[in-house]
Amino acid sequence: MTTLTDYRWPAEWEPHDATWVAWPVNPNTWPGIFEKIPAAFAEFVAAMSRFEQVRILAGGEGVAESARPLLDAACSRHGSRFVPELFDIPVNDSWCRDHGPIFLNGRPDTNAAGSQVIVDWNYNAWGGKYPPWDLDELTARRIAARLGILSMQPGLILEGGAIEGNGAGTVLTTSSCLLNPNRNAGMNREEMEQILFQWLQADNIVWLPGHGIIGDDTDGHIDQVARFVDERRVLVAAPYHPDAPEASELQQNFDAVAGAKNSDGQSLIPIPLFMPQPKFQEEYRMPACYCNYYITNDAVIVPTFTDAADDIAMQQLQDCYPDREIVGVNAINLVWGLGAFHCMTQQQPAA
Asked: Any idea what the CATH number is for the domain that residue 328 is in?
């Protein structure tokens, strides 16, 4: 008989079977520019499809039919090796990181070796901000059913963008999001840690304050402010200028990482990843940040913002991931939806 202790949460840089995304269907997410979004999303999918299989939630009338020609054209331009798969699973919105499944892999030398389970957290669109979310709430269990993988429900609201793991027991998260009463009212830090210990099989939680990305509507998701490079190094969002209005809050995140240790008692090593100059749509500042990159097999897909800092960030990521190709994809329209590539993806690790 297997138990959750027979499983672990792999790091994003470990091998993938596929990446899951959700085709954009909600004009309210990109007000005023939605006509530009499907083609921009197809470019992003095509970039990933050079390196691994991409599985797209494209349910609903006409969604797959409209997506396929855009995908085919983009994949042809990029020379993609894999043909994206379209699944008849409808969604309310495109933030698959947050409403999609979290895969756990069976540990070697246990009864679970070679198998997977899916953790299906509850979802309420970042504290009830953007109804409806009824279809998104069902995403993880529907994917589990299609794959024939056991799905387990903790009965707790938690988005995938709120947690970052190093594959070796340490989880980064933010108090601004995970302890926000608009998710799980009355839950304190100790109770939340026990949940993460149980359902992610973590043994070490590092808490960051979490704020600092102006325009972020998630209450401070970790994938906007800090990302593991390996078991110790952490890229941390840094201000575009020392006097930027967000500089103090970003410094607090940096200091929290610098004062933390991993599961082996080794100090974490923070590395500043400087943000681009502020980007606006209409009068609203968008949460443009390079921390929202996504790791595929053999590559890192980086959001770019037609900014001088793009090249600097990509070179820094190349230094951090020397064995992977660094691929920049223009995200200036997609980020008007208040998220970028990591928010849009959920990895399916190789079992």
From this structure: 3.75.10.10
Helix (H) or strand (E) holding 127: helix 125-128
Q: Per-residue pLDDT for 11 more than 90? A: yes
User: In angstroms, how far is CA 280 from the centroid of its own chain?
Assistant: 22
pLDDT for 26: 98
Range of the domain at 63: 4-349
In terms of C-beta density within 10 A (0-12 exposed, 13-18 middle, 19 or more buried), how is residue 2 classed? Answer: middle
Count: domains in the chain? 1
Backbone angles phi, psi at 175, to 5 degrees: -70, -30
Main-chain phi, psi angles of 303, to 5 degrees: -70, 130
Q: Are 327 and 300 in contact (CB under 8 A)?
A: yes
Going by pLDDT thresholds of 50, 70 and 90, the confidence category of residue 210 is very high
Radius of gyration of the CA atoms of the chain, in A? 19
pLDDT in tens, 307-317: 999 999 999 99
Q: What is the pLDDT of residues 120-149, one digit of tens each?
A: 999 999 999 999 999 999 999 999 999 999
* 8 Å CB contact between 21 and 45: yes
Tokens of 220: 């401070």
C-alpha distances (whole Å) from 268 to each of 169, 233, 310 are 13, 6, 26
Q: Is 177 a catalytic residue?
A: no
Q: Closest Cα partner for 280 from 305, 253, 255, 297?
A: 305
Instruction: Report how far residue 271's alpha carbon sits from residue 150's, in angstroms, rounded to the nearest whole number.
Output: 38
Please check whether residue 238 is in contact with residue 250, taking contact to mean a CB–CB distance below 8 angstroms. yes
Q: Which residue matches tokens 């607090």?
A: 252
**Is the CB of residue 236 less than 8 Å from the CB of residue 225?**
yes
Assign residue 148 a region: left if phi > 0, alpha if psi is -120 to 50, beta otherwise?
A: left
Provide the terminal-to-terminal Cα distance of the chain, rounded to the nearest Å: 18
The pTM assigned to this predicted structure is: 0.97
